[in-house]
Design a protein that fits this description.
There is one protein chain. By secondary structure, the chain is an alpha+beta fold. The protein is about 15% helix and about 35% strand. It has helices spanning about 35-40, 120-125, 130-135, 150, 180-190, and strands spanning about 10-15, 20-25, 25-30, 50-55, 60, 70, 80, 85-90, 105-115, 115, 140-145, 145-150, 160-165, 165-175, 200, 210, 215-220, 225-230. β1 (about 10-15) and β2 (about 20-25) form a beta hairpin. The longest helix is centred in the last third of the chain and has 11 residues, at about 180-190. It is globular. About 40% of the residues are buried.
Amino acid sequence: MNHVIPPAPQPAVPVADSGDSFPVRRIYCVGRNYAAHAREMGSDPTREPPFFFCKPADAVVPVAHGITKEVAYPSETVNYHHEVELVVAIGKRGSNIAIANALEYVWGYAVGFDMTRRDLQFALRDKGRPWELGKAFDQSAPISPIVPASSGGHPAHGRIWLTVNGTTKQEGDLADLIWSVPETIAHLSKYFELFPGDLIFTGTPEGVGPVLRGDVITGGVEGLGELSIRIA
């Protein structure tokens, strides 16, 4: 059977220190998973069940270590925000995964930016509407090369940070996650069957804020390297 139009290219993220790549299937994002960030967004940071939203797979912008890559300032916003996150790459199919077994499904980890049209997100939120226009736009998911868990382990603590033009804006520790990586995987897998190629953005620490054209955003997670983009 032939395709009636050419199929879209397969989105993929490079694997660190390798010529290989990780094909992306879906992108899941956890909302408000650090207490201080929940408070700055006007929410109660209690351990209510985590909630999720999605980005399209082709929103990824792979950025090699040591490179600053240009990302376009998106249309229809005047309040474009940065959010640095630990990203989990799933390497094994599963549903209804037990917390005790969740890390068996992780292929690796990366640094990601959940770029956000904050004005659109808030307008949609206040009307009780989905967040796609605020979260799921083109180039909204810059990501560093993925570090395999087989070589880098499973980070449960360590510094996570972001600077804009060299000034620190976000800083926290992975230990501050309200829902840990195993808990997040277990909960998400109740609602979606996870497959190899899925990415989970695990939430951002406090200090999110706007960026402008020309700004250089650099973020990192201890043990996973850095991610750097310039707003074009």
